[in-house]
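lol forgot to send this yesterday, sorry. struct tokens for the thing we talked abt
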């Protein structure tokens, strides 16, 4: 049995009334979460939070920062909170800046991408298309292609509640779960069959199942809002079976084993 730790790697704020119909006019803090699974010599990091300042991501980066201004205090990046040389694998749920920003710190790790994420990297090559995909290429390291392992669509098999999963290591300890809708190739991770890291399938647990209240602009940001809504229904059904859902932008206890609290 392994352990699962949470790290808040910077944060942004956004008005809840801008996201949901009927929400109060208040700003919520959205931390950029990363999760480290340790089992024997295997240390698997799920997402990497925000990049350290200053960003060098061109015009698309400037626009993104105006829309969702990040706050990254000293010592808050994932590379400052743990020893990067001990991380064996980095799984990226998707390619948005608050999930890939810390990847530069892990040149020795195996980077795991879904086929959809690989295709996004190949197809987005200028500022406008990158911004639509939520991809800031300037945040990605030059060595990334050399370290990537792509998990193809054919590796995902039916798992539960109309969701598909791929057994990353072949022992059932860490399964990638296809969570389509939010972005192309968006993926979560089922850890030891008990905790599902659901990334951005919702912006927080209390917003899961509230998709009918999401306003037009955040709806338009999704790769497919209809599919995202269907994914949310599947996740609610999975949760009812006893699996705990952890979303990237909720704040979770740090310095504790989240598997022990599942």
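and heres what i got for the seq, position by position
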């Amino acid at each position: 049995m392994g352990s699962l730790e949470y790290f808040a790697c910077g944060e942004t704020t956004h008005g809840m009334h801008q996201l949901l119909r009927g929400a109060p006019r208040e700003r919520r803090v959205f931390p950029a979460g990363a999760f480290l699974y340790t089992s024997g010599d295997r240390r698997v990091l799920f997402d990497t939070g925000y990049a350290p300042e200053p960003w060098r991501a061109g015009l698309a980066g400037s626009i993104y920062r105006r829309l969702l201004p990040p706050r990254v205090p000293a010592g808050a990046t994932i590379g400052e909170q743990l020893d990067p040389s001990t991380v064996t694998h980095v799984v990226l749920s998707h390619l948005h800046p608050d999930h890939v920003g810390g990847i530069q710190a892990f040149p020795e790790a195996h980077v795991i991408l879904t086929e959809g994420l690989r295709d996004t990297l190949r197809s987005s090559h200028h500022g406008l298309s990158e911004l639509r995909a939520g991809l800031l290429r300037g945040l990605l390291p030059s060595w990334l292609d050399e370290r990537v392992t792509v998990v193809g669509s054919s590796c995902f098999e039916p798992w539960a509640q109309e969701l598909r999963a791929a057994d990353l290591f072949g022992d059932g300890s860490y399964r990638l779960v296809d969570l389509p809708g939010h972005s192309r190739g968006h993926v979560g991770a089922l850890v030891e069959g008990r905790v599902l890291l659901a990334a951005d399938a919702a912006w927080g647990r209390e917003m899961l199942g509230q998709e009918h209240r999401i306003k037009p602009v955040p709806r338009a940001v999704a790769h497919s809002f209809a599919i995202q809504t269907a994914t949310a229904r599947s996740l609610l059904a999975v949760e009812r079976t006893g699996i705990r859902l952890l979303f990237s932008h909720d704040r979770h206890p740090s310095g504790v084993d989240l598997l022990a609290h599942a």
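Residues 3-247 form a domain with the Metallo-beta-lactamase; Chain A fold (CATH 3.60.15.10). anyway ping me if u want another try
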